[in-house]
Records
---
Amino acid sequence: MDIRYSGLSRISHWLSVIFVVVMLTLGYMMFFSTDRGAGAYAEAAHIGVGFFAFWVLLWRTVYRLKMGFPAYKIKSTRHDVARVIHYLILLALVLLIFTGPLYLFTENEGMAVFNWFTINLDLSALSLIHEPVEEVHKITGLYLLPALLIVHIVGAIVTYILGE
Ligand code: HEM
Ligand code: HEM
């Protein structure tokens, strides 16, 4: 089994990092903003960038699941934990990219991608799931994903210092 990530895997990892950092920053700006205008501006940017984040993060998740993870040279609890965290990060990202658009569509709001185009998909028949979907999106974006990323990044630093 392969023990190294391919070049494409590395590019997709760092491309996802850029999208996730931008989406998290805008999400937190919405959360903390006390000014209505600034909050609305951040939300519009979050939705616009979110359209592109959707495709990139969906593709990278399908690619990873299809290709599998490279095997570690040695088996250890640290590696097992790292692998579980990788799966959980991917799960959190998939939850976010689906609940974001669903949150809008279930109240028949379009997904406006800047002033370029708007995706309209009337799912108001599913309005019952509007609130739960919003809660899942917020809890995953504000708490779950950041917590997983902290563990992931600390783990990466520890591995860098201690070696595999
Ligand atoms: C938004 C931030 C990040 C996300 C969403 C993320 C996500 C992931 C995911 C899903 C994997 C599993 C392999 C793959 O599918 O690419 C992974 C692996 C990895 N990430 Fe990140 N990552 C982030 C930030 C970082 C940062 C800042 C570092 C460096 C400090 C880092 C270092 C690594 C390393 C070294 C691996 C391979 C680890 C191994 O196989 O044990 N990541 N990351
Ligand atoms: C990596 C992907 C994503 C991350 C990390 C993320 C993060 C967040 C966070 C932290 C919030 C909370 C803001 C608050 O409570 O005020 C939020 C809200 C929101 N997100 Fe995302 N999000 C992502 C993807 C998306 C996508 C693809 C869309 C698609 C349109 C989207 C649409 C929204 C909307 C409409 C809200 C506002 C919810 C409300 O008003 O209660 N998000 N997001």
---
Amino acid sequence: MTKIKIAVIGLGVMGSQHARDINTLENTELAGICDTNQATVDKYANLYDVPGFNNHIDLLDQANLDAIIIATPHNSHPVIAMDAFKRSIHVLIEKPIAVHVQAAQEMIAAYEQALRHNPKLLFAAMFQQRTYGFWQKIKSLIDDGELGHLMRTTWIITDWFRTQSYYDNGGWRATWKGEGGGVLLNQCPHNIDLYQWFVGMPKRITGFAAIGKYHTIEVEDEVTAYLEYENGMIGHLITSTAESPGTNRLEIVGEKGKLVFENGDLTFYRNRVSSFDFIKTSTSGFAHVENWKIEIPYKHHGQPGHKIVIENFANALLNGEALIATAVEGINSLMLGNAIMLSFFLKQPVDLPIDAEAYAAKLQTLIANSRFEKVVVERDVTDVGSSF
Ligand SMILES: NC(=O)c1ccc[n+]([C@@H]2O[C@H](COP(=O)([O-])OP(=O)(O)OC[C@H]3O[C@@H](n4cnc5c(N)ncnc54)[C@H](O)[C@@H]3O)[C@@H](O)[C@H]2O)c1
């Protein structure tokens, strides 16, 4: 079988796992590695017997490769991707695709430009949760119209608990300059991507956030957002890295019933008739719509899913398989996260698409005014699995 030659850039918590996965898949081959930390370069170049580089330009120019996976801190994603596009090298980018919408727009414009020279150039995003059986089942139930007209989508995702030790590891984490945000940018992008994958983008967002409320950090660790949709649906996103035990409960309500996902159970309260019709036609003031409680079965592979996304990326190159997630779609989750924070900063609702320039400028001001002194305590990362 032909193997796609992929290099990994950024061999930290995530990238080191990608390198291992590439090495074990049948349709991929590790073609090189790159990290700005020379000790990391030496470690993984020796481990996999591949060329190692301490800057991405040398890797792109000198390694013999078809594609790269970018697993560096978020703010360096766009520049590395754009350097790859210039060389017609395919890109699989980690989430979030960028720190702010303006940077993502610039990167997508560069990709579209490169597509003119190579219409087969791929730009995929690592949204591995889209491969999970329960999320796919929820998406198909909504797409098939099982809930009818949607009324409310509420997702409480407060099971992203992180300790101070987590934040203290890695100088870039949880700072405006290094990371560009907190829970919305690091832990939540998967949920926010799924949210928009399920029910699309809202027209207006009102966001509330708390900065370093429970951790010594300068970015948000607790967020609540209210989302308004063109079709009348309302949404809520609630997240935190400080609740233990946390909650992960998704409720999607439509005229034809309610879907609830919590603790692995997918429950559908299916209305016998449309609640909209019932509101209009029932002669009883207190009657409820008859509903049936159905436990929806689903199949789930039970893996973290990154390996499936890498395999899909290679298959897309080898035989045109559809991508699980294009990176261009990745701008939606970024738009939602940025919009929540912009609303919080402005203390008012914001319409979408947001003013990307204004948000980028706000971020620059936060970076320029930062007085936060980060105490970095490096630790050996052994609990990779709990990172996603
Ligand atoms: N998809 C997922 O489930 C998932 C899980 C964890 C992290 N991530 C994403 O992966 C990215 C990296 O996160 P992490 O936790 O692995 O971080 P990390 O700090 O553990 O690793 C980052 C690595 O990149 C290197 N690096 C920094 N700048 C670089 C540059 N310009 N060129 C080359 N190497 C550079 C660092 O030396 C470090 O080794 C982030 O964007 C994060 O959101 C995704």
